[in-house]
Write a structure and sequence with these properties.
37% helix; alpha+beta; 182 residues; 15% strand; globular
């Protein structure tokens, strides 16, 4: 089993605000990376499946907004996880894939703030999303296991096979200094 891309964001939205996010993304002409490429067998628009209700969110603790291009946003009470099927190693080493995902995260940052990029095999981080964890919980876990954030995305490729995370180590907080438009 491989390790996929994951980005963590913080949020303070209630269920009704989360329910509005697909429309916000779908109707925002500025969010071209979130909307413009649709692969076969993929959703064509962002949507919150009708099966989800406010009760699911309040009792179950999370809902997932499904987007085009096999993108998913899972909203917990305080955290949001963006997941994609692109492998973590591809995100780190392939500039085209990296820029596509970074541009998606850049567009999402207008409603969710800056992301932390972490491989999806850091199971504790997903647990924080699903079980009402917050940004401080994620930071404590990451600091304890990896220390300070990596300074570059490329440095995330340095493996340590002694670690229990498929050898991957570290995380990166993107401020998008190189993408911000004047």
């Amino acid at each position: 089993m491989g390790v996929n891309f994951n980005a963590m964001f913080t949020h303070s939205y209630n269920f009704n605000e989360i329910k509005a996010i697909p429309d916000t993304i779908n109707n925002n002409g500025q969010m071209v990376y979130l909307n413009n490429i649709v692969y076969e067998n993929s959703h064509s628009k962002w949507e919150l499946p009708e099966a989800y209700s406010e009760l699911d969110f309040n009792i179950g603790g999370f809902v997932t907004v499904i987007g085009p291009n096999f993108l998913e946003l899972t909203f917990g009470q305080y955290l949001c996880s963006l997941h994609h099927v692109i492998r973590w190693s591809t995100f780190i080493s392939n500039k085209e894939a990296q820029m596509w995902l970074r541009n998606i995260c850049y567009e999402l940052s207008s409603v969710l703030g800056n992301p932390m990029y972490i491989p999806d095999n850091y199971d504790d981080c997903l647990t924080f999303v699903l079980e009402e964890g917050n940004h401080q919980d994620v930071n404590r876990f990451l600091q304890k296991n990896f220390g300070s954030p990596n300074k570059t995305i490329e440095s995330l490729n340095e493996k340590n096979e002694d670690l229990g995370f498929n050898g991957y180590q570290g995380y990166y907080i993107d401020t998008f200094a190189d993408l911000k438009k004047e």
